[in-house]
Design brief:
The protein has a single domain (2-323), classed as Alpha/Beta hydrolase fold, catalytic domain (Rossmann fold). 32% of the residues lie in helices and 24% in strands. It is built from ten helices and twelve strands. Helix 2 links the parallel strand 5 (63-71) and strand 6.
Length: 338
């Protein structure tokens, strides 16, 4: 079964597109969507997630398990969320990541023109991500008799949900008093302002404080994140398109996927991509998935992952392993940062 947390309101026996109470779901493997009948009590749900966290004794002798929380972006209905969830679960296991995977489902519409309304819904539900998900796992660690590494993977507007959630959590006395941190925080096609991730920027301060590492995968050819896109109402350059700023904190890493994407997209069957190719190509791509799996496992230093080549101190480019030539000079990918 698939583990899902949804904050959609139940309406007439089904989940709608408005924010509501948090529900914890066991979704059967073949179910096309989510249903209120899949809801179970929170404690039962958590116990099952922990059982799937693949707890093992690590190199330091400490029992450790992993939980990855996937947060989708705007214009995603539950069937799309489940399809991406299942793709991640299958592909990450193939590269050695065997932790539990949880999808945090917030009420985004399935219409592209609902972008700004979706961002409003994202802000309304962001706090529940921490209070009913990340904090939940933090409190359960002692009961699990192990250390749970909680990781977060945010796609598109999911990065905005994360930023708002972490900021709100620091203003909530009950959660702020708990020592909670996510291990690996990962953005793909992140739909948040790039400049806000600079060292000392107030917007991202809480996010940096509550993660061990932030890895941002950027693609300068992301057509959805271009400023000229009418849907986006002329917002500033996005971190998923132009990357992290040069003065981002040391714990932040940017992986430029532009060169790899251009080659890959010419060869890949676009029908295998769930969503806009330039914005959602990561789901089902083996090179990205291998890089993500190594990032989540944390066994290798960020400089030793063999699907990336270093451009600068915290700047890398994604490269298929067979294309790596250790002795070759590396030329940074230069693109127009619109």
């Amino acid at each position: 079964m698939d583990f899902v947390i949804t904050v959609r309101q139940e309406e007439d026996g089904k989940y709608g597109d408005n924010p509501g109470e948090t529900s914890f779901l066991f979704v059967p493997d073949q179910a096309p969507g989510i249903d209120p009948q899949q809801s179970v009590d929170k404690d039962t749900w958590v116990r099952n997630v922990i059982n799937e966290a693949n707890v093992k004794v690590d190199a330091t002798g400490v029992p450790r398990g992993d939980v990855l929380v996937f947060i989708h972006g705007y214009n995603n209905d539950p069937p799309t969320v489940l399809a991406r969830h299942r793709r991640l679960k299958t592909d990450l296991a193939g590269f050695g990541f065997h932790g539990a995977i949880v999808s945090f489902d917030w009420p985004s519409d399935n219409k592209a023109l609902a972008y700004l309304e979706d961002r409003h819904r994202a802000k309304l539900t962001a706090f529940q991500l921490v209070s009913d998900c990340i904090e939940l796992f933090a409190r359960m660690q002692s009961k699990a008799n192990c250390h749970l590494n909680v990781h977060v993977l945010a796609h598109s507007t999911g990065a905005y949900v994360v930023r708002e959630a972490f900021d709100d959590a620091d203003e909530h006395r009950g959660i702020a008093s708990i020592n909670w941190t996510v291990s690996q925080l990962v953005f793909i096609s992140g739909d948040v302002t790039a400049s806000s991730w600079a060292q000392g920027d107030a917007d991202a301060e809480s996010t940096y404080e509550h993660c061990i590492r932030l890895t941002n995968y950027s693609n300068p050819f992301d057509e959805v994140l271009q400023i000229s896109n009418v849907k986006r109402a002329g917002l500033e350059p996005r971190v998923g398109r132009v990357g992290l700023p040069p003065n981002a904190p040391e714990k932040a890493v940017n992986v430029n996927c532009g060169e790899y994407y251009q080659k890959m997209i010419r060869e890949r069957d676009k029908n295998t991509i769930i969503g806009s190719p330039s914005h959602s190509w990561q789901f089902g791509d083996p090179v990205f998935t291998q890089d993500l799996a190594e990032t989540l496992k944390g066994d290798l230093d960020r400089h030793a992952i063999n699907t990336r080549v270093q451009l600068a101190t915290a700047q890398f480019k994604l490269v298929a392993p067979q294309a790596l030539v250790a002795s070759a000079p590396v030329t940074p990918v230069v693109v127009e940062q619109r």
